[in-house]
Amino acid sequence: MNRRRLKIWARIAIEWKLRDEQNRAGVFNMHMDLKRIKQGFIRLIRIYPLIAIGLLIIAYLLGGFSEQSNPLVPRTIVLGMLYGLIIVVPLLAILIFVGFSVSEDRSRNRNLKSLENLPAEDPFDLAQEEMCGFKIVSLTGELPIFTGVTGDTYKNDENAICKEFPDHVPPVIGCECGFYAFKNRRDAQFELSIHPGLFLIDVDLFGIGFSHKYGYRAESQRVNSLEFPKRCMRCKVLPARVFIKSYKIGYGNNVWWHWSVRCSLCVKGVKPENRLTIEQMSQKLNVEIN
Ligand SMILES: [Zn+2]
Ligand SMILES: [Zn+2]
């Protein structure tokens, strides 16, 4: 039987009301635009070393570092630029990051407060919406299993459980339980670029769900497919070919298995029992791998 049909898609309509009210107050949009600004800022920071080296090379070529009495670029400007690149810009970046986290905390508290005042609504009256999303996971365990960024493990089709309050049926207002996913593939890809070694998956969420501009938090989740990384996670250059498992030492004596992908060169020396082909991995996880 097709399990997809057994599940219902529902979204909490009250979230839309809440969002409309917040839109009027201009609160919601501000917070959400912040997320995009932050993404752009982090991208900029990644290319910062290149910008800095470029500026230094230009200064060097224009004679800023030479002993000539009359260089094209005066020594004071070169010195000022060096101080700026090494001290001022990084300091500014740190301040901006502090600013981001302060405003994120504020808007989280504000959202929690507004959520506490939500009226109870009959779930059967809720608007229905297909909740399809993207997220990043690691693959852990001797037998591979999905592991979310919070450390919770799950199979290809699961109901969320609340670790903190066992009587919760996630998602619960005011709690963080439930399966999360981005609506937009781009946001998941950005997260992947910050967390190398993880994988991008495509999921469908079911049951009661909270919806906001960028994502969902819902009751149950089915993983549709996993995106096979293009490059080897070791050399970062050659195309990835196989999955391999290796162990990592966790807290205490806790040893856990961690799966990554390797190219045909970097896989040499890995014992055959610690390798899985894409097809084998797809069978073990019971999801498509593209
Ligand atoms: Zn909970
Ligand atoms: Zn490699």
Task: Describe it.
Among the domains are: 23-116, no CATH class; 125-135 and 147-226, no CATH class. 39% of the residues lie in helices and 24% in strands. It contains 6 helices and 12 strands. Strands 1, 2, 3, 4, 5, 6, 7, 8, 9, 10, 11 and 12 form a 12-stranded mixed β-sheet that branches. Strand 9 (242-249) and strand 10 form a beta hairpin. Helix 3 (27-61) packs antiparallel against helix 4 (75-116). The structure holds zinc ion (ZN) (2 copies). Residues 162, 164-165, 168, 170, 172, 175, 177 line the site of one zinc ion.
Which SSEs are present, and which pair or pack?
Elements (H helix, E strand, L loop, with lengths): L2 H4 L2 E3 L1 H13 L1 H35 L13 H42 L14 E10 L4 E3 L5 E2 L2 E3 L19 E4 L2 H10 L4 E13 L3 E13 L14 E8 L5 E8 L12 E2 L1 H8 L2 E2 L1
Parallel strand pairs: 1-7, 8-12
Antiparallel strand pairs: 2-3, 2-7, 2-10, 3-4, 5-8, 6-8, 7-8, 9-10, 9-11
The chain binds zinc ion (2 copies).
The site of one zinc ion has 8 residues, from loops.
What is this entry, summarized?
This protein has helices spanning 3-6, 13-25, 27-61, 75-116, 185-194, 278-285, and strands at residues 9-11, 131-140, 145-147, 153-154, 157-159, 179-182, 199-211, 215-227, 242-249, 255-262, 275-276, 288-289. With 290 residues, it is an alpha+beta fold. The radius of gyration is 24 Å and the shape is flat.
The total count of helices amounts to 6
Tertiary shape: flat
Helix/strand class: alpha+beta
**Distance separating the two termini:** 24 Å
